[in-house]
Each structure stands twice: as C-alpha cells, then as structure tokens.
Amino acid sequence: MEEALKIVAVVAATTVGFTIAGVAGFGGGVVALPVLVWVFGVREAIPILSISQVLSTVSRVWLHRDGLNWPVVRLFALGALPLSVLGSFIFISIDTTVLVRILGVMMLLFVVYTRLPIGRDFNMKLWGFVPLGAGTGFGSAFLGIPGPFAAVFYLAYGLTASSYIGTSALGMGMIQVPKLIIFGTSDLLTVRVLSLGIGLGVIAAVSAYLGRIILRRVPEAVFPKVITAMLLISGVVFLIRG
C-alpha cells in the first residue's frame, strides 16, 4: 500500500509541477523534488529530476520555438555551463540544507522587490544574462531548482510570456548536460535512476504541452502576476523544505 501511495505521489507531483512549468516557465522542480526526495532520497532525486527536466525543456523549447531569443540563450549559456559543473561537484559532497533556506528567503525578497518602485522600473540588460546564467547554473546543480531565481530577470528584459518560457527552457536544458555528465562519472546515474528519470521525463514532456494550452488562455498582462505568485510559493516551499 505504501509503495502504491509513493508511485501515485511521484506521478501526481511530476504532472502538476511540469504543467505549472509549462505555464510559468518554472515550478516543475519546486513541486516534484520534495516528493522525489521523500521517495528516493536526495542522492537519487536530483539526478532523476535532471533527466526529467531535459525532456520537459525539450518539449517547451519546441512548443515555443518561434519566440526563442538566441542572444539571451548564448550569454546565459556562457555563464551557466561552467558554474553548473562546479555546482555538480559540490552537490556530490555537501549538505545543502542551509543554502536551501537562504534561497527561500531570496525568493520572498524578490517578491517584495518586484512590488517596490525600484523593482517595477528595473530593466535587465543583455550582458546581465552572463552572471544570471552563472547563478542559475550553480543553483540548478547544487539545489536542483533553478527556475524561480531567473524568472524575474527574463521578464525584466522584456520577453513576452511565450518567448520567456521557450528561451529559459533552452537555457535550463543546456544546464542539465554537464550536470548529468558529472553525475554519471560519480556513479549516480544507475539503471534505476535512468529508468525513473526517463519515465518521469515523458510525463513532464506531456505536462509541458498541457501547460502550453493553459498559457494560451492567460492574458499577457496577467502573466507577471502568475510569476509573482509562483515566486511566493517557491520561497515558502524552500523554507519548509530546508
């Protein structure tokens, strides 16, 4: 009975989380990772999530391919790829509990920041995607949940909803590659992990399509409010999870 409950919980969390990611550009890891950690433990949960995120991001990139902003993708990758390698090495040997709580506080501060005049008037510059990529790449490898940190800056650059989701998904997908290489060389990608990751990745890819259907019904003016709500929820989840 307990095993059946765990299977249902994992499938439900993956479906809900990556449907949300299809709408907001992030949220898959926020929802799915705590359940994956409960069922499989953190050492398996992060690699499983990384594999499923690859398939989910491929799906989102394809669905939003017409809005991809390639200059943003290139600069984001320039900062993200080296730091994702560093974060992966650190993940293998360190306890992330304190950092998770710090990240939760950061998410809540971002919500406050975006409500203040200085936050509403902030304009992201193209070169800023290099340090943004660095922080996101490190956070993704170290914590498994990079999306909430980057969302504010993509929108501050002026990307529309569809362009933001496709562009950020491509960046997130690229981050997973060095992570998985490091995990593989550290014997974390077992047959069990690969099978689970691919299985959940298929669910995540389908969920991304569901998210795309929902996104089409969200007015462009309402979209930033959706992101703000997700940031608030992410911050609370991180604090509880920590």
Molecular structure report:
This protein is an all-alpha fold. The protein has one domain. Helices cover 82% and strands 0% of the residues. It has eleven helices and no strands. Helix 1 packs antiparallel against helix 2, helix 5 runs antiparallel to helix 11 and helix 7 packs across helix 9. The mean pLDDT is 79.
Mean pLDDT: 79
Beta-strand fraction estimate? under 5%
Largest sheet: none
The gross shape turns out to be globular
Integer-rounded radius of gyration: 17 Å
Into how many domains do the coordinates divide? 1
H/I helix tally: 11
Number of strands: 0
* Amino-to-carboxy terminus distance: 28 Å
Class derived from helix and strand content: mainly alpha
Spell the H/E element sequence.
Answer: HHHHHHHHHHH
Please mark out the parts with pLDDT under 50 across 5 or more consecutive residues, or reply none: none
- Percent helix range: over 70%
Short description:
The chain is mainly alpha-helical. Helices cover 82% and strands 0% of the residues.
